[in-house]
Amino acid sequence: MRFSITTAVALATTLVSALPQSAESVGNVTTLAAMIPAPPDAPTPPTTCPKLAPGPVSFKFLAENFPAPKPTDLYAIEAIRQTAALYALAIDGKAFEALRKVFVPKVRANYSDPIGVLNGVDAVIQALAPGLESFASTQHHLGTQYIHICSATTAVSVTYFQASHYFDPYTGIQNPVGPDRVLVDNAQYQDVWAKQADGTWKITNRNLVRMGPATLQGGFPTQPDMSAFVYGP
């Protein structure tokens, strides 16, 4: 089907007239872009925040203090989750300087007995390193986790963990060790988070809350340095 010039001009005129009056020129990309509605904003974070600081809060009362989850900033939740995982990687890898990526410089961290309350990331590094270095290796397994975004820049989280502390190095799957050679700690981290100027999330307040006694069948093994033994978080 062929169109005459007159027909083509009439068709173009009809198309232009169908555009909103604000479009002064069909060829003006800026004008056309302005006609496209902006995507809806992300849901506004809640304005209330469960109080975990300075804490700790008994784990028996946590569930009733946290609201049911609602759609919120999933980017922030994932950033917090990944930073919590980075903590485990730093501890088990004995890369203690990497803890500066997890905690703010003036963090308050209560690691419970026997370490107690530490003020500042330098104090955290200085306190954790010696105790953890006394083990051949450790494994911190993060489990149940609840993250609550309180505002655009604040959040709280509770993360269950099981920490295994090995007295002997791995020498092959065919050489297992007895339960008296592994110290297992079952606890939770209660953390308060703040979004930093560079967009990362870091912990401003931490409480380690044990949910039961550490297990070590047969008591502590006899080792030359056990008099100064401190088991890590």
UniProtKB/TrEMBL annotation:
Instruction: Tell me which residues make up the SnoaL-like domain.
Output: 74-207
Specify the signal sequence span. Answer: 1-18
Q: Which branch of life, at top level?
A: Eukaryota
* Alphabetized Pfam families for the sequence: SnoaL_4 (PF13577)
Q: Which UniProt keywords apply?
A: Signal
Write down what this protein is called: SnoaL-like domain-containing protein
- The organism is Cyphellophora attinorum
